[in-house]
Amino acid sequence: MSKRTNEARAREQLIDLAEEFYDQFAGGQIPEMTLPTRTKSNIEYDPDSGVWVYGDRTSTRSANSVRGARKLLKAVYTIEFLDQQLAEDRSSTLRELYYLSESWDNNEAHFSDQDESNQMIEDLEIVSDVTREDFHMRPEESGATLMGPLEIREQTRRGEREIHCQQDVGEGGYQIPNNPDTIEFLDNDIDFVLCVETGGMRDRLIENGFDDDYNCLVVHLKGQPARATRRIIKRLHDELDLPVTVFCDGDPWSYRIYGSVAYGSIKSAHLSEYLATPEADYIGIQPQDIVDYDLPTDPLADSDINALESELTDPRYQTDYWEEQIELQLEIGKKAEQQALAARGLDFVTDTYLPERLDAMDVI
Fold it and tell me: Where does the record place the Type II DNA topoisomerase VI subunit A all-beta domain (predicted)?
């Protein structure tokens, strides 16, 4: 679907939603908007797509209370703003939307904080079945990058340009745009995708030539990956049939980073089929690695223990592999960073650790 087609559909869906509110008024009904309940207890595994999606439980935003009426009023003002933005072919950030509401003529329509405006965009995504990227809404800069033997064509305001993600970029790599669906994959010599949590490890891999030696596309997740990062990873897997691996620290928060790439997140479960790559494999650091390589570690904090215990009940981690690894980590009471592999030398990660793990997983 072309960019223009997406924009036209986005406007149509927004207008349809506003008309639905109007029709409810005209029919003597109290306006309302029904949404899935966004909690861990309301996500379930979809065997057809292999990702976690919202279940059947819903909540209703209704104008039968002052609080509910305010929310619907803010929704209408936001719809009007987004429609105008699309008509003018403009874009704005989530942060700007929060401040822009201060200029709206009804004080009751102003957002109290950015969390509220962010949630409003998520609500409109769900009820309209249109992504915020097609609303021309951008997050603040994520800075996530990729580096490897991939040639792309990118649409920009100055026209199209072709980029080779090794030869035409500096050591920092190619920065992933807010809407990676504007990218066309032209050619590649990639054997697999390696998603890396930290900038330090990403730089180590590039400095050691790992992308050249193994025909690898290195994607820097920059911590919890932005939607654009997860979207391009999914496209790389689905359209180019590339194996995807995720290389993170050995702690519960990093396991959630992997989970967001592979299975989606509670916050964006309505977009799991658009963002998640359930075939992605976790490549480390594992609790078993802490034991096998005697890695430098830190003790688990109470918050780490609570997070691990929570993951044992999280449907995204209810597999034999994750239960075994999490229970081992609780038993040893330790966590380790990717950079802990440097205790065995700066080249250990690229010469030994990753090749052995990738070979064992039949990726190389």
Answer: 140-189
